[in-house]
Amino acid sequence: RGSSSNSRGALVVLEGLDRCGKTTQSSRLVQYLEGLGHSAELWRFPDRTTSVGQMISSYLSNESQLDDHTIHLLFSANRWEKRSLMETKLKGGTTLILDRYSYSGVAFSCAKGLGFEWCKAPEVGLLTPDLVLYLDISPERAAERGGYGCERYEQIEFQNKVAKCYQLLVDSKWQIIDACRPMEDIEKELQEIVLDCVKRCQNGEPLSHLWS
Ligand code: TMP
């Protein structure tokens, strides 16, 4: 479909606090792109299907305890184990919509008190997203949405810290989306932004690496 020999899929990341709506919006985005005839896949981090992912999943549901640094590195390893497939897919023209990525990795660990630079270090060399959509909602509003479940990080006070850490990561690839509006309004806004990004990548926007 592309107009250039360097045509590729776009790497789009949705980020935000727990229950900000990004899981719903990411799957709608994939449906939308596919409906337009684009090749698109929904990926989610943590990817709980791998063996590293299973360790993460058991930690998140409080079935196991791990040192804060150790779990941080496992989350990162879980992205590294998907890195080469990610590059292959993008170069093959598939757009990837990611439900969380390195930004969650840094924001959640940093909120626990780990050093910001230390948290970023294991992410260096992963692919940089073309676009980061941050679904902005207060932890109080997010918690009202059916309430938090019983996973480890779903507490208002902690989510407030995560929100502050996310702010340290904002750069020119980010778009802050007001996630307190009706779902359909958010959906429309995301569609426009993402389609624009997909077109840029079809025209041969080069891939780069974190953090640059
Ligand atoms: P999920 O609810 O989107 O599956 O994410 C599980 C939890 O893991 C969520 O509270 C965010 C957290 N998380 C990290 O702490 N580090 C990471 O690298 C990722 C991807 C998620």
What topology does this entry show?
Blueprint: E1 11-16, H1 22-35, E2 40-44, H2 51-60, H3 68-80, H4 83-91, E3 95-99, H5 102-111, H6 116-120, E4 131-136, H7 139-144, H8 156-167, E5 174-178, H9 183-202
Parallel strand pairs: 1-3, 1-4, 2-3, 4-5
Bound molecules: thymidine-5'-phosphate.
Thymidine-5'-phosphate is lined by residues 18, 45-46, 60, 75, 100, 104-105, 108, 153.
Helix content: 40-55%
Kindly provide the radius of gyration, computed on alpha-carbon positions and rounded to a whole number of angstroms.
17 Å
Low-confidence stretches: none
Total strands: the figure is: 5
List each distinct ligand once: thymidine-5'-phosphate
Secondary-structure class: alpha/beta
Mean of all residue-level pLDDT scores: 95
Enzyme class: transferase
Protein name: dTMP kinase
Organism: Citrullus colocynthis (colocynth)
Family: Belongs to the thymidylate kinase family.
